[in-house]
Every structure is written in C-alpha cells, then in structure tokens.
Amino acid sequence: MISRREFIQASLAASTILGASGLSRWSRAMAQQSLTQDQLLEFDTFGNVTLIHITDIHAQAKPIYFREPEINLGVGDALGQPPHVVGKDFLKMFNIEPNTPEAYALTYDNFSDLAKAYGKMGGMDRVATVVKSIKADRPDALVLDGGDTWHGSMTSLLTKGQDMVNIMNQLGTDAMTSHWEWTFGQDRVKEIVEGLPFPFLGANIFDVEWDEPAFEPYKIFERGGVRVAVIGQAFPYMPIANPKWMFPDFSFGIREERMQEVVDEVRAEGVDLVVCLSHNGFDVDKKMVSRVKGIDVILTGHTHDACPEPILVGDTILIASGSNGKFVSRVDLDVRDGQMMGFRHKLIPIFSDVITPDADMAALIDNERAPYKEQLEEVVGQTEDLLYRRGNFNGTWDDLICEAILSERDAEIAMSPGVRWGTTLLPGDNITREDIHNATSMTYGACYRTEMTGETIHTILEDVADNIFNTDPYYQQGGDMVRIGGMGYHIDVSKPIGERISNMTLLKDGSEIDPARSYVVAGWASVNEGTEGPQIWDVIENHVKKIGTVKLQPNTSVVVTGV
Amino acid sequence: MNLSRRDALVLAMGGVAASFLPQAALADAAADAIAAFTGGAATATDGIKLDAPEIAENGNGVPVGVDAPGAVSIAIFATGNPTPGVATFNFGPAAGSQFASTRIRLSKTQDVVAIAKMADGSFKQAQATVKVTIGGCGG
C-alpha cells in the first residue's frame, strides 16, 4: 500500500517536471514575443480543493518592478537551502534558463535589461484576472491573504489602509492574517476588522492584560465536499520589530504550543485538511511545521521569498508566494478520507504586460487613486542608477536615503531600517513622489536626529545582526541588516552576538569609531513614541530636488565574512 | 533633543552594564541559588514544562509559566540577572494542579530556569533562552 508520504513525494516530483517543461516552453515563447495569458494560467485542475495564496502585497495596487535579492544568506541548517539561494545558483537549483521571464521574475541578474524586456509585474487588476480565471476552473477556490496588505504605498498611508481593504474585498478574499496592518494602530485595525466580510485570523494574537486569545484563531470552510481549517498566524514579533505603543493591548509571539493546541482542536472537530496561513517568515515556518504535528499546507509570508516549487517538511508542504503582487500561488489538493493525498502547484508570475487587467478592479484602483493622483505622480527627479532595496545589506535605495539624511539632517552617521519592502526603479526612470513613498511609506516615518556613542552604535548593529543571523530561526525577526550611511563596518555572520561586528570606521575621515565618543546620528522608523523630525519622504524629496538626477557611488562600506 | 530608541537602549545598556560584573560571579550567583534550592541534587528533564517567549516583547515584564504535575514546590531563576532567584511557589496537598505563572524582569538575554521539587524529594528542571533585544527592523 502506498503511504501518504509517498503520495506527497510523487506529487512533488510531478510538480518539478511540470514546472520544468512549462519553463522551457515559456522561454521559447518569450523569444518569439508571444507569451500569452493562457500559458501563464495553464493548469490541469486536480483533486477537490484549490487554494489561492497571495502575500506581502505592501499595498502595491499598480504594477511595479521588484528586484529579488542578490545577497540572502542562510545560517546554520538554512545554509544553501531555499530561500537562501540567489542568482545563478537559484536558476540552477530550479532548472531555469538565464534571461528567461522566470529568471527575471525570480532573480536579480541582469535585472535592468530584463525589466525593460519583460515589463513591470503585479497589479491587483491583473491579480483579479488570475483569481477569476482559477475560479472559472474551481468556483469555490479559497483566496487567502498572508498579510502586509494594507501598508506600503502613499495611497494606503493617506487612506489608512482603506484602498487596499476595498481592493481585497472586491477580490473575494476568504481570510487574512497580519503584520504591518497593526502600524495603523489598534483602533484602526479593530475598526476595519469589524467591517471585513472575512475573518482576520491570528491564533497567536493575545490580549496583554489577560493573556487570552484576542482574535479568531481559525475558520473552517466547506469546499468540494471537504472541511478545510485555515489557521492564521500573525507576525510573531510585532511589538519588537514595530512600535508597541501603537497596539499596546496585544501580545504576539510564535506560541508553538498554542499552534499545536489549535491544530489538535480542529482535528478533533473532524476537519479533512489543515492549512496554516502564516506571517512567521520562511525559516520560522520551516522550523514550526517540523515541530507542530498535523498541518498539511503552510502558506508562508513575511520574508518575501518566491519559490517555484513547494518545500516538503515532513508531511507538510510549504508554499512561498513572493511579494508586492508579483506572484499568485495556485495549489490544487486531493483530499480523501481526512487526508491530503496529493497536490499540484504553480507559482503564477504576474507579468503585467501579458495578463489583461480585470476591468472592474482597474476601475476601483483608479477610483481610489483619483483624489491623490496629482500629488502621487508629481515628478521629483530622475535616477541614472537602478534603485532597489531587497538584500541582506545596503541596497541602492537606502544608499540614496542615507545620502539624503546625512545631507538634509547634517549628521555624521545615517541609519535606514532593513525592511524588505520597497519597489525598484530602473536607470533612466523618473522619480515620482509615489516612488519615494513606495520605499518609505509608514505611520512612524519621522526622521530623528540624535547623538549616540560608538558603543551604542555597535550594540545596535550587533542586535540587528542577531535578528537575521542567529542560527535558531525562532530568534530571527525576518528583516534585513540596518542600512548605514557615513560609516563602514565588517560583519562575520558565522559568529555569535557581540562578536559579529568589527572595524567600524567613519567614512568621511577614515577614523576608527571610538566607543566613548558621541556621534550625530540621524535615521527614521524609530519604534519609540514621541520621535520628532520631518517625515523621511520629505527629507528625500528635498534632497532629490536639489540634486536633480540621482547618481550613486558603488557602496563598498560593508565587508561580509563567515559565509 | 530626541533620544530615539531610548527605552529600548536602556534595556540594551542594562545588558552592557551587567556585563561589567565578572561573568564567573554571575554564573556562580545562579548556580548558588539553584544549589540552595536543590541541595545539589541531580535534576531530571521530563515531567516539567516551561513556557516562555523566544524574544521578550518587554524585558520589564516577561510572562513565564511552569507546569510540573506532582510538584510540591517550583522555583524560577533568571540566570543572567544580578539576583537570579525570581520566585518559589509551594503547593499544598489540596492543590488542584501544580502550575504557576508570573511576569519577570530580565536585564538582558539569558536562560530562564525552572526547577520543580517533587513529592518524593527528586527534582526536575526545564530551561529556555529569552532574548531581550532592541528590535525595530521588521520586514
């Protein structure tokens, strides 16, 4: 008799073959300039349940460029494992030819040229077309949103997330979980959630005072004659990574035992399939499903990784669907007798020039933008360089931001947070006000100016580095390294906390950073209440208007070892 | 002047200040406190569950819970605090369960240790690392 695990492994093998043949066909098609929507959506409907996963949209309603990381180091068991594989190694691992549409969508190599050839990706009107097409095959497909949806653009900031709420409602979302949503403050979250036609799930969101569950942990859906439990897991480190004072009544955490209790509870209810809609991050989810028993499918989010194939962890399949609306995952499942017996998966790249926008969604998006259109689209300057953020260390967007901070705030050292959102601009592009917001939009964007001793700066760097390079995923928060302007340093990622950072140097005169001396430091996105200063997007806009055209020097200030 | 990240840094600097104490002295203080509770007896690791967050949301009030069925006494130690002994809970014969939870202040990243004294005089031990961090860079 064939075991369940063998079924799942057979599915994985089949999915690999399907993926590979699909890819080679695409590259030929693109070479002939004839990639079609039908090819992107081609899928042999399988089993009896379909999940549609989208996550970390960061309020990008319109198509964007988003360059995937060039440096995304894995430590400990994660070394060399997805998603810690980039560029040519990634292409090799997933059998993708260089310079193909898939290579453009999933890696950084030759990004500017490929972006010009293949165009922008994403756009919620294109996503709507994809969802409608999948629902034409499987009308009761579940649409699951992994969170980081309401935040990340100028329109979402100005409407306090309402534009994205309207868009996700029209998309037909069945459930969501959360992270940056909370940075609109707990009152705004509660206000929106009361009006949502679908549950805002978070098994790990607790009331601080009573330490009791505060939001719906799961919802059970009937689909294709099967009972499907979707359990939500919000970002565990909310009050640490983001300003706690904005949501003082709530506590988060991984709460592994709580997750096991909830899985046991829905299993006891007799569900046939257990899906976890998670904002833990890839490595945390991998560890969690290796320890919590009974999850069939985990839809991972937060760390912005796109994986062309599911990752098998024990009997659980892990699906990673990228960010910024670049991808939608379709997962068809064969569920029989209370067991997942097989699956078929496709990471659908949303090429905005190939997929026809859904007219209703396009109209809604235009309507949401209309009141702000003029301020959004005002051209502030131009860039000669590729501007991107994603990657473990400095990206060019942050080089520009740090340059702006140093100049506009008259500081010796600038700090820019290592968030993973922030879209990309190509060499020769105009920089609009909206583009600056796409890299900085937030409810705590004040650009502070203060003094810190060399020792304090060292402590901060060590602390942030440990949030990325701690070998235990449960101690990782999932951001990238804080970006530094005006100062260089060396980092040995293989060392423990306190020993990673060395050779801190003030770039303007090459002097060693003195632990006892105070330095003028300016930065943004402080998690402290009452932080004062101009908004970071205004600081950048002023700087760009002064220089006219952005032209950056290559940044060699961070030396990485221990890889 | 705006002292950004001040609250968080106070925690971090607390950690730095504590590290000026000789490490051996700290380790000794925790070992001494534990030895005073166990009388130096060996501890088993089964039958005791310590629930603590991986990363503290607030180092000034970290929720911890210990469940040790059959215990007559449960002690909690913050091994990196200047005074490692946090609390001892005693259970009488009428206690319905042997579970205790409280909130503790942690001066820096450290191991929290829970030890249960059982009715037969044996001891059980569980520990967890709780990280106290500045944070501030979520993706």
UniProtKB/TrEMBL annotation, chain A:
The molecular function terms of the Gene Ontology recorded here are:
hydrolase activity; nucleotide binding
Report if keyword Hydrolase is assigned. Answer: yes
Domain 5'-Nucleotidase C-terminal, chain residue ranges per copy: 394-533
**A single BP term in Gene Ontology:** nucleotide catabolic process
Q: Which CDD domains match?
A: MPP_SoxB_N
Q: What InterPro entries does this protein map onto?
A: 5'-Nucleotdase_C (IPR008334), 5'-Nucleotdase_C_sf (IPR036907), 5_nucleotidase/apyrase (IPR006179), Metallo-depent_PP-like (IPR029052), SoxB_N (IPR041829), TAT_signal (IPR006311), Thiosulf_SoxB (IPR030998)
Q: Which terms are listed as keywords in the entry?
A: Hydrolase, Nucleotide-binding
**Pfam families given for it?**
5_nucleotid_C (PF02872)
Q: Does the entry feature the keyword Transmembrane, yes or no?
A: no
Cellular component, GO annotation: outer membrane-bounded periplasmic space
User: Could you say which protein family the record assigns here?
Assistant: Belongs to the 5'-nucleotidase family.
Q: What is this protein called?
A: Thiosulfohydrolase SoxB
Q: Whose protein is this, by species?
A: Pseudothioclava arenosa
The gene it comes from is soxB
UniProtKB/TrEMBL annotation, chain B:
Domain of life of the source? Bacteria
PROSITE patterns named among the record's database cross-references: TAT
Q: Which InterPro entries match?
A: SoxY, SoxY_sf, Sulphur_oxidation_SoxY, TAT_signal
Q: Name one Pfam family in it.
A: SoxY
Any keyword Nuclease? no
The protein's UniProt keywords, in alphabetical order, are: Signal
Q: Please list which residues make up the signal peptide.
A: 1-27
- Gene3D superfamilies linked: SoxY domain
Residues covered by the Ig-like SoxY domain? 35-137
User: What's the protein here called?
Assistant: Thiosulfate oxidation carrier protein SoxY
Give the gene symbol: soxY
